[in-house]
Design brief:
By secondary structure, the chain is α/β, with parallel strands linked by helices. The chain has 2 domains: 108 residues, Urease, subunit C, domain 1; 311 residues, TIM Barrel (Alpha-Beta Barrel). It contains 14 helices and 17 strands. The strands form 2 sheets. Strands 1, 2, 3, 4, 5, 14, 15, 16 and 17 form a 9-stranded mixed β-sheet that branches. The chain has an 8-stranded parallel β-sheet with strand order 6-7-8-9-10-11-12-13. Bound molecules: (4S)-2,6-dioxohexahydropyrimidine-4-carboxylic acid. (4S)-2,6-dioxohexahydropyrimidine-4-carboxylic acid (DOR) binds next to loops.
């Protein structure tokens, strides 16, 4: 059986950083020890000076397949993901067709099996009229449910109160929600259109997709989860005000209400709109520096549980439209760990906390089997990173199908050196290695 011995790594796992050797046998971690003597026939990797992290489990990506493959494909974006240290992803249902039936889910699983270099899972989409599908789909085959409580790419708004109550009462799966109050957004948008027409200055985006819109919707979802007992996961928090809605009193395994924050809301602020324009137009919007600071604080205080990307590529041409027609979203997976390693170097978060939020917690929250931790017997989804190696984002090192990044020109203070998925080296110092495809994530249910 294929064996890899990683020696002298600074292993970051379960709240500790310690020097270890790790023996990988086939697709799993065979042994973790202070010293493992090589036998001679294994591939030995000297990781002196490097940190070994679990692969990031990104619980929110949009890989656009089927139906929107001019923007991205599972093949292209999964390769960008492993280059960014993401070894597993959960993909969203706002494709064409939407993932709102068992058949559509199976179709995505088939496509991923043939094309994904990373491990894959999908969220099943809820709509105003697919309650029967939600009640009957095979819950072993999807990671959870996704509801858009504010409209975004893909027309999946669920705004019928009774339907929402029925959905929340109908499943024990995690219900991941996009929270922005539609009425507030529409009213704000109408006011700005009256003033500017379609070409609203991008700086107004956080005034349209406002703090109030986020807060109203998040608090309503939380109230509904409390009254129905649903397992709620609020995606991409973007405001200081919302962070107060979440508590740190219970460990993640006991929480019924959790929150996620995304790389872009931790990196950018409204001061960046002038330079970046619609490249940083996201739903929810990037907001004030004070919001960004509060998101960091809530993450470090465990009121926010999960770090993700909300990778949502659109073509550069689409993004150049005037405000009302420029789609929201941007590609991020390739720069997830580099951005966060930079934050580690800037003392915004510790490596241990980063690994907890990006790897351990998504695995615990979605009950993903045998991943998210560096443990004997677990899958060898591993990332070697160099905290001292700088990495500049340029056009020619991008792997996204859309060919652009909101980080172009940025130099990160930290790099992904090697990525292993199920014990296979799939990324090595700038190169994708087509050694093996990823596996379907499985869940403890
Ligand atoms: O900015 C966003 N883009 N937010 C979302 O919720 C959806 C995403 C997309 O799919 O384009």
């Amino acid at each position: 059986m294929r064996e890899i011995l990683i020696q002298n790594a600074q292993l970051v796992n379960e709240g500790l950083v310690s020097q270890k050797d790790i023996l990988v046998q086939g697709d799993t971690i065979e042994k973790i020890s202070n010293h493992i003597a090589p036998k001679g026939d294994e591939l030995c990797i000297d990781a002196t000076g490097l940190h070994l992290l679990p692969g990031w489990i990104d619980d929110q990506v949009h890989f656009r397949e089927p139906g929107l493959t001019h923007k991205a494909t599972i093949a292209s974006e999964s390769r960008a993901a492993v280059a960014g240290g993401i070894t597993s992803f959960l993909e969203m249902p706002n494709t064409q067709p939407q993932t709102t039936t068992q058949a559509a889910l199976e179709d995505k699983l088939r496509t991923a099996k043939k094309n994904s270099i990373a491990n894959y899972g999908f969220l099943f989409g809820g709509t105003n009229d697919n309650l029967e599908d939600i009640k009957t789909f095979d819950t072993q085959r999807a990671a959870g449910l996704k509801l858009f409580l504010g409209s975004s790419t893909g027309n999946m708004l669920v705004d019928d109160e009774q339907v929402l109550r029925n959905i929340f009462s109908s499943t024990d799966l995690p219900i991941a929600v996009h929270c922005e109050d539609e009425k507030t957004i529409r009213k704000n948008l109408e006011e700005y259109i009256a003033q500017f027409g379609d070409d609203i200055p991008i700086e107004k985006h956080p005034k349209i997709r406002s703090e109030t819109a986020c807060y109203l919707s998040s608090s309503r979802a939380i109230a509904l989860a409390k009254s129905t007992g649903a397992r709620l996961h609020v995606f991409h928090l973007s405001t200081a005000k919302e962070t107060a809605l979440f508590s740190n009193e219970l460990p993640i395994t006991e929480k019924k209400i959790t929150a996620e924050v995304c790389v872009h809301h931790l990196w950018f602020s409204e001061e960046d709109y002038a330079e970046k324009g619609t490249a940083i137009k996201w739903n929810p919007a990037v907001k004030k520096t004070t919001d960004r600071d509060a998101l960091w604080q809530a993450l470090n205080e465990d009121r926010i549980d999960v770090l993700a990307t909300d990778h949502a590529p659109h073509t550069w041409e689409e993004k150049q439209n005037p405000y009302t027609k420029a789609p929201s979203g941007g590609p991020l997976v390739q720069h997830a760990y580099p951005a966060l390693l930079t934050a580690v170097n800037q003392a915004k978060i510790t490596l241990e906390k980063l690994v907890e939020k990006a790897c351990h917690n998504p695995a615990l929250l979605f009950r993903i089997q045998n991943r998210g931790f560096i443990r004997e017997g677990y899958y060898a989804d591993l990332v070697l990173v160099d905290l001292k190696k700088k990495f500049k984002v340029t056009q020619d090192n991008l792997l996204y199908k859309c060919g652009w990044s909101p980080f172009e020109g940025t130099t990160f203070e930290g790099s992904v050196v090697k990525t292993f998925v199920n014990g296979n080296l799939v990324y090595n110092e700038g190169e994708i290695i087509e050694s093996a495809l990823g596996k379907r994530l499985t869940f403890d249910r």
